[in-house]
Write a structure and sequence with these properties.
The structure is a single chain. This protein is of the alpha+beta class. The protein is 23% helix and 39% strand. It contains five helices and eight strands, in the order βαβαβββαβββαα. An eight-stranded antiparallel sheet has the order 1-8-7-6-2-3-4-5.
Length: 194
């Protein structure tokens, strides 16, 4: 039987509970100036640090003919350092659909996808801090070539609850001082271009 690693060995500062459980993710993303200002607001409202100072490398995989992209799907293998944690993420179809699971080895996961005929179609690296604020997670990203961003999101299995979660996120964005004119609807990958 495999013994599970303590949270801190996985790069976690607290137990994530149900924060990352669900088939749907409602999120809003904003360009921000100084991330420390937003971090201060999050902490003043009772936010707790989950992961700080992670460097994440995302590798995107699709079939040679772009079948996943045409279907509105995105397949990503994410490697986080210094924890060494690996996630396999499927987003889409649609803006809210999102599935993720932990994998044991980054290189092996990439090799397995290649053996199935998938090819790497892009990569993205970012520095990421994640805070929990009530039901939400607040993600602060520094993306080379793009700048600083904040994402406010929540995950759920209840598709009927998505509209209600969008309203609650709107309210929390206002509390955090995230301005509508700074909202970014494109993915980092789209912003970086081909």
């Amino acid at each position: 039987m495999t013994e599970s690693l303590p949270l801190n060995k996985k790069g976690m500062l607290c137990d994530p509970g149900e924060h990352f459980a669900g088939r749907f993710e409602v999120e809003r993303k904003f360009r921000i100036g100084d991330p420390a200002v937003l971090c201060g607001r999050v902490c003043s409202l009772g936010g707790k640090a989950f992961a700080v100072g992670n460097i994440e490398l995302d590798l995107f995989f699709d079939t040679p003919d772009g079948r996943l992209d045409r279907a509105g799907l995105q397949q990503v293998v994410r490697h986080m350092q210094p924890s060494g944690r690996v996630l396999w993420i499927i987003k889409g179809p649609g803006e809210d659909a999102c599935l993720a699971t932990d994998l044991p080895e980054f290189a092996k996961a990439c090799d397995m996808l290649a053996a199935l005929g998938y090819r790497e179609t892009g990569r993205l690296q970012k520095r990421r801090d994640i805070y929990f604020l009530g039901d939400f997670h607040v993600t602060l990203d520094d993306v080379p070539g793009l700048g600083n961003f904040a994402e406010l999101s929540v995950m759920t299995d209840d598709e009927a609850a998505l509209a209600g979660w969008r309203e609650r996120i709107d309210t929390m964005c206002d509390e955090l001082g995230l301005e509508a004119d700074a909202e970014e609807t494109r993915s980092y990958r789209d912003m970086l271009g081909p």
